[in-house]
Amino acid sequence: MDSSTIILYTQEFDSYSLRPLVALYEGEVSFKHVEVPVVNPPPWLFTLSPQGTLPTCKIGDLLVHGTDAVCSVLEKEFPKIAKLLISKRKNYSSMLQHCRTKFEPAVDELLNNEDESRLEALREALYLELDLLETSIKGPYILGKEVSWVCSRSLALFTG
């Protein structure tokens, strides 16, 4: 399959969109990436995906909707991606488990805290969880070894 015909449509900061995005970057497959606004999605999205499902990937004439389906097709078409995704499945599983049990509760507590005196301690606890997650998971990385999935997942929390 000619990789120049791949277009990946995603939402910004959407964890479901990250898996195929990471796979394409780490698999060194050339593709076009289109971020679709979460609020007021453009009408053309519903031409590509009648239910507005993202991620959606256009590979030649084939339209594939949803993370698992997109990754499945990428695994079949690109051997390097297949090796990456199969080797990372255990890491994804442990990463998601850590996010559910440690990271997300820390974020929730920070965002819902009304006690100004506790903000710095909560922020430090969140940074500690991010460091532990980054150290234990060792990737997956986007753009070399500089930006990881953990960084991209948490970017929205620290920009504003």
Structure characterization notes:
The chain is an alpha+beta fold. The protein folds into two domains: 3-80, Glutaredoxin; 89-158, no CATH class. The protein is built from six helices and six strands; from the N terminus they run βαβαββαααββα. Strands 2-1-3-4 form a four-stranded mixed sheet, covered by helices on one side. Strands 5-6 form a two-stranded antiparallel ribbon. It starts with 5 loop residues before the first strand and ends with a helix. The mean pLDDT is 76.
List the helices and strands and how they pair.
Blueprint: E1 6-11, H1 15-26, E2 32-36, H2 45-48, E3 56-59, E4 62-65, H3 67-77, H4 79-112, H5 119-137, E5 141-142, E6 147-148, H6 149-158
Parallel strand pairs: 1-2
Antiparallel strand pairs: 1-3, 3-4, 5-6
Main attributes?
single chain; 160 residues; two-stranded antiparallel sheet; alpha+beta; 14% strand; Glutaredoxin; globular
Q: Shape, please?
A: globular
Summed up, the helix count is: 6
Q: Tell me which oligomeric state these chains represent.
A: single chain
Strand segment tally = 6
Give helix and strand order, one letter per element, not per position.
EHEHEEHHHEEH
Highest-level CATH class of the largest domain: Alpha Beta
CATH homologous superfamily (4th level) name of the largest domain: Glutaredoxin
Rg (CA only): 17 Å
Q: Could you describe the largest sheet, including whether it forms a barrel? A: 4 strands, mixed
Compute the average pLDDT: 76
Helix content: 55-70%
Count of discrete structural domains: 2
CATH topology of the largest domain: Glutaredoxin
SS strand fraction: 5-15%
Report low-confidence residues grouped into runs of 5 or more.
Answer: none
Distance between the termini: 40 Å
Summing up helix and strand content along with how strands pair, one would put the structural category as: alpha+beta
